[in-house]
Prior knowledge:
Layout: H1 22-29, H2 34-46, H3 52-128, H4 133-139, E1 145-155, H5 168-171, H6 181-193, E2 198-201, E3 204-205, E4 212-215, E5 218-221, E6 224-226, E7 230-235, H7 238-247, H8 249-261, E8 264-275
Antiparallel strand pairs: 1-7, 1-8, 2-3, 2-7, 4-5, 5-6
Amino acid sequence: MSQQPPVRSTGAPPVRPDASMSLLTNVMEHSLDDGYAEAAARREAEGGGLPRTLRAKLGLAAGLVLTALVVTVGAAQARISAPVVAKEREELIDRIGAETSDADALERSVDELRDEVGDRQRKALKTQGGGQGELVALLSGATEVEGPGVKLVVDDAKDTDQGGDGPRESSGFSDTGRVRDRDMQRIVNGLWESGAEAVAINGQRLTALSAIRAAGDAILVDNRPLVPPYTVLAVGDGKKLSTAFQDSADGQYLHALQENFGIRTSISSEEKVRLPAAPSLIVRTAEPKTADAGTGNGQGTADTGKGTS
């Protein structure tokens, strides 16, 4: 009996001989993958073939070059204009110096004229005042005064607060321990009322027209600033004047400042004190002599009120 040939399956096709080379074939057929293609298309759409970082570097370099050019041009212009500016500056300095010298000369001239006017006024008070000429000159501060009197020293409290606020700012007292202009007003008026014939503060002679004021923390006497301690000299009977002042209301006021706020004070009788003449005199009014004035010899009388505001 004859033998049948085996039956073969007819499923999958036979494998190609080059099937193992499919990867190499794919690489050969597709030299650029999709990522590279997209990058190339994007660069083409942006309008340049240079990378973004390279363009940024080139822009930065161009900006630096432009800045350096501007700085160079500015420096060159400054170097060119420097001599002109220096010359103008020297001319301005010379003008300022010349004007300052002229102002100083005018100020000296004003001081000299003021002194001359003061001397003439003092001489006129002495010679034209008749029998009361010396008294008028004394009370008006036109002449120096020397004689017995008292010396009163007033100073701020130790470790004084410089703030300047406290009850005294509104009620007449101060917890700052500083001497105020109103304190000196009361002291001076108290001395006048106690019998002082002439008064000076720190060498500044007071007259009937003198004013004690404040400018900030400074005390001014006739617009001249004073600094503590304040030395008050008064001509008069030393012992009586000292006793009368301390017993007066103004003396008690000063004692209260010392006890309550630490303001330092001292008063002593002096055998001799010397007060300078007032730096300037102001003539407010003048009256002509009359034949029937005073004692009938053509000499008038003088009214010399005292007080310090």
